[in-house]
Every structure is written in structure tokens, then in C-alpha cells.
From TrEMBL:
Organism of this sequence: Streptomyces coeruleorubidus
Organism phylogeny: Bacteria, Bacillati, Actinomycetota, Actinomycetes, Kitasatosporales
Regions crossing the membrane: 16-35
Name of the featured protein: DUF2637 domain-containing protein
Alphabetized UniProt keyword annotations: Membrane, Transmembrane, Transmembrane helix
Domain of life: Bacteria
Amino acid sequence: MIIKKMHEKGVRSEHAYMAAMASIGFSVVAWMGSLKMEPGTGLARADRWGIFVGEWAPTFFGLGLALSHYEQHDGTLTADVHEFRQTQKAS
């Protein structure tokens, strides 16, 4: 199982979520960078770069969800996550 192997290597759901958020930001940077560095290619090429990088985010979010599910069953959720869940239940 890929998720189990990732977990054993030290990859946690928080890492995948951070990568997803970073890929969203990097998508904007790639789009703007392509516009400025390749002015002759036009907006279409910049859009393709932005979309290409932006497609990584759902994959990272999916991995984060799968890792979170594995962590719940494995019992390795961080204390912060447990505290957050307890706070949400108390509200």
C-alpha cells in the first residue's frame, strides 16, 4: 500500500496539505513568470503553465486525506489535530 509506505517514510497528512497549498501559490507564480519570461508566446502558454502546476493541488489534497485516514486508524495523529477535534466537538 502506497499510503502505508509514505507514512513509514515519515510523510504525514500535514506535509501533503502544505504541498497542496504551496502548489496553489506556485501556480500563480508559474503563470506570472511565464508571462514575463516568455512575452512572445502570449497568454495561452502562461495559462497552460498555471493550469499544469495547479493540477498538482488536488493530488496533494487527496494524499493528505488518505494519510489522515491512515493516521486515524494507526493512532499517530498529532496532538494538535486531537486538540482541534476536541475543541470542535465542545463547540
